[in-house]
Every structure is written in structure tokens, then in C-alpha cells.
Write a structure and sequence with these properties.
5 helices, 4-stranded antiparallel β-sheet, 138 residues, alpha+beta, 22% strand, Endonuclease I-creI
Length: 138
Amino acid sequence: MHLTPDYIAGLVDGEGSFTFRVNTNPSRRNRVEPRFYLKLKAEDKDLLDALKDFFNCGKVYIQRDRRPRHSLCYRFEVWNKTDLIEIIIPFFKKNSLRSPSRIRDFNIFCKAMRIIARSDHRTEKGLNELISLKKMMH
């Protein structure tokens, strides 16, 4: 399956997500977990495999949902910080998203990744900045 950059940007506009989790549990070391992902029905798994091949990073795995009437889904996800900074972010800076909400989340995600890249997320100030950014995301 051949994917074009325009197709990928459109798919992510509709189905993708740029996010990060901030763990502030006092019994654990503060941790920030950035993620870029797409979730699709099982019948579309080949498309997720093609995304993994296109970006040459990430993983495709089954996402079980035990709620009634929910379809079996698969998820393509990139969580490696280097891959996010060197592959995913530059791709979407070059191949613009069009959905205002997705653009907003992507821009916030980029700010968060700059904090993480500088290791500022290991400071109280940086962690608080990330928590504030997270609240602005969809």
C-alpha cells in the first residue's frame, strides 16, 4: 500500500491524536509520556501497518475494548521521544494539518516536546508548564 504525505495528513486530521500523559504520583518519579497515535477498526489494520512502514517507527497493536457493541480496533502508536522529535514532528510541520482542533493539539504537543527535549520536565517549573499545556489539549 502506497501512502502519500497528503493522505497521511488527512487521515491524521480525522483519526489521529497528539497527546502526552503527566504522572505526578508522589510515590513514583515524575514521568511524562508523549504519544502520537491513530486507532482504526481491525479491517483497516493494513493501513496502520503501511503508516508504520512509511514512518519507519512506532508499533501497531490490538486495542481491546470490552464495551458492548464496540468493534475490534488496532492502534499505530509512536512513543519514542527521538522518533517523535526527529520524524513525526518534522513530517507534520512540512505536511500541514487542516483541522483547527488537530492543529491546536499539534502545536501544544510541539511545545511539550521542546520542554521534554531540554529535560525541563524533570524540574517542578517544567512539569507545571506541561500540566498547564495538557489542560489546553482536546
